[in-house]
Amino acid sequence: MEKTQINFDQLSEVLGSINAINNNTIQVATAAEQQSQVSEDINKRIVAIGDGSKTLAMLGGQLNELSTQVHQVVAKMNEQLNRLKS
To answer: What stretches of the chain show up as alpha helix (H) in DSSP?
Structure first.
């Protein structure tokens, strides 16, 4: 009977260790999934920043073109004003 108790105790200890390993495995899997989700979120934000940068660059080019056009219009207006003054 004593041997049976020892075997039972050892088996209980092994089962306890297996449960601890399973719990640790679940925690690691959960942490890996969370890290994956965070990485995916970061990647989406980086893409959005890249898209925003492209849009800003395009708008900057358009602004530069408009500035040049305004400068040309002002120069023509000044030219016409000078003719009227003469």
So the answer is: 2-85
Which DSSP symbol is given to 1? -
pLDDT at 35: 98
Q: Is the dihedral of CA 56, 62, 68, 73 positive or negative?
A: negative
Question: In the numeric block, which tokens belong to residue 79?
Answer: 């030219």
What is the torsion angle, in degrees rounded to the nearest 10, for the CA atoms of residue 54, residue 59, residue 61 and residue 64?
A: -160
pTM: predicted TM-score of the whole model, two decimal places? 0.62
Residue 34 is encoded by which pair of tokens? 């969370």
Q: 3 falls in which pLDDT band (50, 70, 90)? A: confident
